[in-house]
Amino acid sequence: MAIGYQRENRIFTLDTAHTSYQMKVDDFGFLLHLYYGGRVYGNMDYLLTCYDRGFSGNPSDVGNDRTYSMDVLPQEYPVMGVGDFRNSALIIRNADGSDCCDLRYIGHEIKKGKYGLPGLPAVYADAGEAETLEICLEDKVSGVRATLLYGVLEDADIITRSVILENRGENSVTVEKAASACLDFVTGRFDMLSFYGRHTMERNLQREELRHGTYAIGSRRGTSSHQYNPAVILADRNTTEDAGGCYGMVFVYSGNFLCEAERDQYDQTRVLMGLQSDLFHYPLAKAEKLAVPETILCYSDRGLGMLSDRFHNCIREHLCRGKFRDEPRPVLLNSWEAAYFTFDGQTLLKLAKSTAALGIDMIVMDDGWFGKREDDNSGLGDWQVNEKKLGCTLRELIENVNSEGVKFGIWIEPEMVSEDSELYRTHPDWVLQIPGREPVRGRNQLVLDFSRADVRDYIFEQICEILEQGKIEYVKWDMNRSIADVFSGETAQGKVTYQYVLGVYDFLERLLQKYPDILLEGCSGGGGRFDAGMLYYTPQIWCSDNTDALDRLRIQYGTSFFYPASAVGSHVSAVPNHQTGRSVSLHTRGVVAMAGAFGFELDPEKLTAEEKAAVREQITQYKKWEELIRRGRYYRLSDPFAAAYTAWMFVSKDRDRALLSVVMLEMHGNMTVSYVKLKGLDAVSVYRDAESGRRYYGADLMEAGLPMPVEQKEYPAYQIELIKEM
Ligand code: GLA
Predict the structure, then answer these.
(1) CA-CA to 252 of 20 to 30 Å: which in 60, 142, 228, 392?
(2) Across the beta sheet with 104-112, what order do the strands follow?
């Protein structure tokens, strides 16, 4: 039993293989948090201490006892208005204008299997793999009910949290803020690890000591954003890759979010993960409900590496869905950096011919194939094939590509409209725009109101018509601006940011149901919506618009803290690189791109014969290692922000095979030797270097490391395959 309840003292215990989580309903019905961390066995309510604390008020229930204060006690779901002056998980504005909601326990249920959420992505598991705890809390005065949902995946060491809010009262209320998870710690000094960035430079790791006050990250952009990823780690101050305690929180949502970490007056820590409160005032009429998106929680007592491994497994096996969850992904060549907007059917056919000769599985026709779309100033929304530009129908093009033995994929950006488009001219009221104000433009395009079913239905039909025009086996779903004008012609204001995201999910779900054999790749100017929510629909996401191998090392390093390599779209592009102007060898570009779903973003005709042979070889190697990369355990071996090299490893579950990848970052005169220490091997087994034939004990490689060659080159890279012999 992963979930236990002790009736006599009203303690709930959630146990996974290596972690425990405990909470308690106190004498007054408040739900107090007791513990989350490594596995424990007793009742942790002995951790609660009560002292008279000045200026920390006391609930009236306790009479004259001044030692009981919600401002000090650890809680499961802290609410504004009951004497806890720290950050709240929930703020309810009542019909009378007051901000208060006094949630007390009214009951609970323990169920087999993992709960799901209406209209929202959520971790899933077989009935035997998970249990669900539902705890019902209610505010008597307003009738607001919060059902706290806990999903426990025992073997996976994962606990998920979500909340369903329901107005069971007579009057409408407004949800002003709603988190799905709160972690309160009565003790501990923590660092916060967060992942900041910008377009083409996403998910840089920042590690900061949590001090008094609130450290907050979030998004108000309508998407989860390039700027802050909706996932954080709270680590003991001395935690490293391989040792120490750390907690991860991953928000399964693709829109505005808020994560707040606060160290309070008594050196206690609270971390909240949930919906962004700005641009959110969700009216909840009588009997109406609101599902707060899920947060995935995980604790590791063996450092960040173990934490990442657990998240990778959870996302890969309990969040990603569909046929491609378990299948090799096609090696694809995307037309974007090869041709941008300048192509016709012949260009694509040529690409197909040259990719076929190289062994690439698929070409993807990126932006520019529809409506009037010669650049990024027009045409979005007009999802009709520009046959004049292509010089043929889409069906003909696909058939010609297929006849080269190459699959065909296509790019779409369904959420957008250009002002210069037939769609906008016909339905100017379909965009998000504040009445009486000029819109904020982003990439010279406006955002369609995807909170509206009629708008979605129309676009869905248009997209389906395209997908019916031939054997399309892959769709890249893009989203290329932040949402600024939050106002809908139909949806209640205050609900728009949330309903927009649910609209995107609804569209994606319909697409998945209708075309289960199409591989969907998410994208938002690269990694602007790289989050666990999208991964429920698209098993891979274009990691960044930056294809520079050196920058990618950092971007992919940051991405690896939560997201598995199977989720990372990564391609070899031309040099000098289009984003940085840097030239890195083809070999190094290949090694870096092989840390994910591999592909190309260049015109093969511009390669020399020697380079073409090298590409062929890369594809052969990648196919050999594809399963290891997609399903193997991933280890970070160095920090690209600090070390002279970046190294990582994939190790098969049975430790029989491993692939070590190393990129040297520094070159100086009379260069020192870098020894890379491996991880995850079986210590007492012998491994053979598949290329050199040299044999090593696993322990030797892990304890003493492997010396990297000193070569007079810039950024040389090495891939070493190790095969267990005995
Ligand atoms: C975004 C994507 C690119 C490409 C362009 C097309 O920037 O991230 O990969 O598809 O749009 O306009």
Answers:
(1) 142
(2) 104-112, 130-138, 144-153, 158-167, 289-300, 246-251, 231-236, 190-198, 201-209
With a 6 A CB cut-off, is 336 part of the ligand 1 pocket?
A: yes
Strand, coil or helix: 499: helix
Q: Of all protein residues, whose CA lies closest to atom 6 belonging to ligand 1?
A: 367
Query: How many Å lie between the centroid of ligand 1 and the Cα of residue 339?
Result: 12
* 3-318 homologous superfamily: alpha-galactosidase from lactobacil brevis (2.70.98.60)
Local confidence band at 106 (pLDDT 50, 70, 90 cut-offs): very high
- 610, exposed or middle or buried, with CB in 10 Å at 0-12, 13-18, 19+? exposed
Regarding pTM above 0.90, the answer is yes
Q: Which of 611, 639, 666, 703 is catalytic?
A: 611
Tokens of 274: 């949930």
In the chain, % of residues over pLDDT 70: 100
| Pocket flag, ligand 1, residue 411 (CB < 6 Å) | yes
Q: How many helices (H) and strands (E) does the chain have?
A: 13, 37
Q: What is the mean pLDDT of the chain?
A: 98
Match domain 323-407+458-484+504-631 to its CATH number in 3.40.50.300, 3.40.50.2000, 3.20.20.70, 3.30.70.120: 3.20.20.70
Q: In which element (H, E) is residue 232 found?
A: strand 231-236
CB–CB of 314/189 below 8 Å? no
